[in-house]
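Notes from hallway chat w/ T.B., transcribed later so I don't forget. T.B. wanted the structure written out for a chain they're using in a teaching module, and asked if we could keep both sequence and structure tokens in one place. Agreed to drop them here.
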Amino acid sequence: MTEEGSVAPARFESLRIPEFKRLWWGGVFVFLAMQTQQIARSWLAFELTGTNTALGGVLIGFGIAGLIAIPVGGVLADRFNKRTILIVTQLVNTVTAFTLAIAIETGVIAYWMLVAASVVGGSSISILAPARIAMTADLVDRDLLTNAIILGTMSTQASRVVGPAVAGVMIGISAVGVDGVYYLSAALSAVSVALTLTLPLGAPSRAPTRSPINDLRDGLSYVRARPELVRLLTMSLLVIVFGFGHVVFLPAVVSDLFDRGPVFLGYLTAAAAIGAVITAVALANTDRRRLTLLQGRAGVAIGVFVILFAVMPNFWAALIVMFGLGASMSAFQSLNGSLVLSIADMEYHGRVQSLIMFSYSAFGLAALPFGIIADEAGLRETMVGMGMAVLAASLLGAIWRQRIVQTKIPAL
């Protein structure tokens, strides 16, 4: 699976595999498309309604769609050609972005359209992500899997550097505007489709012999029998729901707390993404024996940085904190994903990855009540509470892990 005669730094070892390199670049473009859309959608929703509740309402569509699509995505990834799944979902993203661009340009855009687009986006990413991770496991050897997953996370985070910054600048230019951002997103998704067409089929490791429902039940039984997998998936749920929720409020933070425009929203998200990319590169060759320790520390760091972000008195102080918050979020995502897939057998990778995606659906569902609380109790107070919840979840995870070790239950 490696390309003979090429020299690459060990930190980027998995990128020596040509097929994985194309998958990686496809991920850069598709996630860049999603990030530009996210900024445009959030800013437009806030512009149309002016409330945090509306920001949460956009994401709840994402969450509801994920609850339905995630189990389907995991089963599909283990039963069908992964390349086909990737192509179809990326085409859906292309068409959705192009349709919204036209709606904005013609002046018929409405808030419900943003919610509908969020539902479509939640469905497509919930199906795309398990197939993408499972394809990664197909293309690289097991000893390179952690490296490949972290580099995949790095591509996602790199898109968060460029995407929000570019989107924020484009929205601030009257000749381009939000519709221009959506046109760009459609073009980027189309590029990812072209790259995906060059990948191997990614056929399932075994021919399906049971119904999809039985496959899903089998995956759940497989996870339940492995206490460390249960712990990791539970920690993913709690940390992502409470620790990543601040992302929902960024337009309100920029506009209401700091009285800034869309360009500064791009700066804020780009600062987090720069921290995320640096962290992903630093972790690319992490010793597997240190993954659990570092994952726990990353969870604690997220809680601390969310609280700090909530109380910062001005934009520039918040920008510095956002760098650290992005770094800790990246570390947690990368390390948690690596731990889960290093424990799970390959034939279950799609279904296990779909369970990780449940965390993001729950994050979408929690966005609406968080938005309501923020409108009633205050934005800063709400984010402080979210940060404290992450710290409590991290403590729970550490105690849980210790009990697993003390009772001599194998981590597997």
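Follow-up for T.B.: The chain has 14 helices and no strands. Might be a good example for the class.
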